[in-house]
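Reading group handout, session on sequence-to-structure problems. Before we discuss, look at one worked example. The prompt was deliberately terse, the way you'd type it at a terminal:

> structure Periplakin/Envoplakin N-terminal domain-containing protein

The input record follows.
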Amino acid sequence: MQTNADQVEKDILKSEEMLAVDAENEKKDLPFQHKNEISIKLTEAENLLKDLFLDVDKAKKLKHLQAKEIEKDIIHLHERWLKDCAFYRDIYDQIDDVSLMPRINWGLILNQKQKELNGEEYGPTMVDLEKQIAAHNILHKEIIAYSSQLCVGSAGSKEKYNAFKKQYNNLLDNSKWRRHYLSSLYKYMLGCNNELNFLGEEQEKIKKQDWSDHIVDPPHIRRHYEVRTDMMQKPRFGFNLPFFLL
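And the output record:
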């Protein structure tokens, strides 16, 4: 985890250095020098951040003593990465109108994020689900970060801004619902796994029980397993099945 975090920080620092150079080139009407190299660095950082969010989730489940501090550091790195991505778009992807005001192609960006959201799956295994939760955490943070950048200036006009704002709010709501569904499904599957482990342990105990005529108190043993059977027929976890699984 530390190695990945160090590499993300190096990629971010290098990207910021090259962005500063090309920002000056833009002011002086000189050709850009580092667009492709920065794109590679930011993409590498994004992939490592996904792994880091997955690792910190595992650390929290294992009750690692420094899990909260590690999570804060990763969130800080992710925020720096988002700012660099926004700076990258401002420099290389801006669309100039007659007033030379930099704009963002919000229609393309929001449609792409909605497409990513619609294409995401649920499960089917716990490992898959944990990866999906980590990946969606990054996507959700990216969507939230768009809020500060979406304005009349970046949209190009008041009419376009109103349309993009409505589309953005819908995208944000969908992302929040997916986050909720993933959390509900994770809790449900975790409860199922705990129940299966419990039933497996009870099965082994029954197999190892001496059921011969040498049992000292057979009525007591019978009552004991009648109680256990009754317990096993009752749910052992306190939450409902998500409605999308009904």
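Points for discussion. First: The two ends are 38 Å apart (CA to CA). Second: The first helix runs from residue 2 to 27.
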